[in-house]
From TrEMBL:
NCBIfam families according to UniProt: outer_NodT
Membrane topology field: Lipid-anchor
Protein name per Swiss-Prot or TrEMBL: Efflux transporter outer membrane subunit
Residue ranges, annotated region (Disordered): 103-125
Principal localisation: membrane
Biased composition annotated in UniProt, kind: Polar residues: 113-125
Family from the record: Belongs to the outer membrane factor (OMF) (TC 1.B.17) family.
């Protein structure tokens, strides 16, 4: 008994924990992006980026949609529910660190056998008896080796992982809402341009019919002009369907029924323009900002703590328990003289389990190695994603500049071709060719503008910006 008391005292004094303490993993992210010399990017040395990046587009409708999606999206709400579940699970595990206390009471009426065990009533089974009793029980496992502390540590890390998962879902929803909105405005603008060029093509058809009546054009010219009108008309239904589909996609992101945003989005607006300069931060700040990296780190933390839990299973478990209560044959006898109590330590030691504990420890070690590899893979993938997004943004900016010039010259060519056609200086084929080229270039320019804005959304998503605007703290915390 003295030895047990001595072991307990030493354990409580040392408070050592099995396993190894978690160390934040090292990452190979540098201090400067490859595109940092581009004037369109600003690499803030403090690692900060624009948190409400959607406001930089200067579109109030876009900002409103993202604000509403953050609060109403069902995926975000489901992720928040899973976070609350992980916090509740942590509370259950954390309760093991303290003692448990319970009370119970009972009344029973019984009669023992005359030939069986001794009769508590002392009547040798001659008559029935009553038994009244109540108890107050307490138990506390002494966490001498830190096994329970490691379990709580792993639970805290799982809460952090769930929180980062929620932030990752929010970031994805914000980016998806912005993408759908930009594509919607692009579809509307392409639809408007197509309609304008359709009016021009119809004007050309009418002019051709006039020239046909005057003998200055042929029926072939009329047929080609009519076919050109029909070809442009055929472009309208897919664009209208795309506009409707994107409107419904936005409604779904906001947890609304189909067509709910139709009136709000009906008025065509310009494609949200990109910011003049983008705050990139520094590569090393990705590990502090991107939810997927933070989640991978939390999962590695949980896996590391789980090794300590598995190691703790090899050590004895010592529990202090006690019970105090009242017991009497008659209710009127319940009093201080009817008291009963029991207390003392208990312990259990694993002696032979066929290798179960050893196998469990090996499993936890292998899982920790996998989590470490997953962390490295997540960091590397994030680095690649940012580089690809930045390269795509630069390429789309260059493409847009070239298409701006192509559209400008195409409009000049169309005006000249139509004038020459009216004056008989060129044939219809040249006019239709110029119209078709301009239509393609106009559509490509709209697509380029939308793609440039979409690439900027991808840049901010890759940088991990946006969720901070809807969080009271940028760091995970466990209540």
């Amino acid at each position: 008994m003295k030895a047990l008391i001595l072991i307990t005292a030493l354990g409580l004094a040392g408070c050592a924990s099995v396993g190894t303490d978690f160390q934040r993993p090292h990452h190979d992210l540098g201090q400067q992006w490859r595109q940092a010399e581009d004037a369109r990017f600003a690499a803030a040395q403090d690692g900060a980026i624009e948190q409400r990046w959607w406001d930089s587009f200067g579109d109030t409708t876009l900002s409103s949609l993202l604000q509403r999606a953050a609060g109403a999206n069902l995926d975000v709400l489901a992720a928040a529910s899973r976070l609350e579940q992980s916090r509740a699970a942590r509370g259950v595990i954390g309760a093991a660190q303290g003692p448990s206390l319970g009370a119970n009471g009972s009344y029973g009426r019984a009669r023992n056998s005359e030939q069986g065990l001794s009769d508590p009533s002392r009547n040798n089974g001659q008559s029935a008896y009553s038994l009244w009793q109540s108890n107050l029980d307490a138990a506390w496992e002494l966490d001498l080796w830190g096994r329970v502390r490691r379990e709580v540590e792993a639970a805290d890390a799982r809460v952090d992982a769930a929180q980062e998962t929620q932030r990752g879902v929010l970031l994805a929803v914000l980016a998806e809402t912005a993408r759908d909105y930009i594509e919607l405005r692009g579809a509307q603008q392409t639809l408007a341009i197509t309609q304008q060029l359709l009016d021009i093509a119809r004007h050309t058809l009418n002019l051709t019919r006039i020239r046909l009546r005057e003998g200055a054009a042929t029926q072939l010219d009329e047929a080609e002009a009519a076919a050109h009108v029909a070809t442009i008309e055929a472009r309208l239904p897919p664009l209208q369907q795309r506009e409707a589909r994107l409107g419904n996609a936005l409604a779904l992101l906001l947890a609304l029924p189909p067509q709910s945003l139709r009136a709000e989005l009906a008025a065509s607006k310009e494609i949200p323009v990109v910011a003049m300069q983008v705050q990139l931060g520094v590569p090393s700040s990705l590990a502090e900002r991107r939810p997927d990296i933070r989640r991978a780190e939390a999962q590695l933390h949980a896996a590391t703590a789980a090794i300590g839990v598995a190691q703790g299973d090899f050590y004895p478990r010592i529990t202090l328990s006690g019970s105090i209560g009242l017991q009497a044959m008659q209710l009127s006898d319940i009093g201080w003289d009817a008291k009963r109590f029991a207390f003392g330590p208990g312990f259990s030691v694993p002696l032979f389990d066929g290798g179960r504990l050893r196998g469990k420890l090996q499993l936890r070690e292998a899982q920790q190695q996998e989590a470490a590899i997953a962390y490295r893979q997540t960091v590397l993938a994030a680095w690649h994603e940012v580089e690809d997004a930045l390269s795509g943004y630069q390429a789309n900016q260059r493409r847009q500049a070239s298409l701006d010039e192509a559209v400008k010259q195409g409009r000049r060519a169309l005006g000249s071709a139509e004038l020459q056609y009216r004056q008989g200086g060129t044939d219809l084929i040249n006019v239709l060719h110029v119209q078709n080229t301009l239509l393609n270039n106009e559509a490509a320019l709209v697509d380029s503008r939308a793609t440039a804005s979409l690439s900027l959304v991808q840049v901010y998503k890759a940088l991990g910006g946006g969720w901070q605007a809807f969080s009271s703290t940028s760091q995970g915390s466990t209540p």
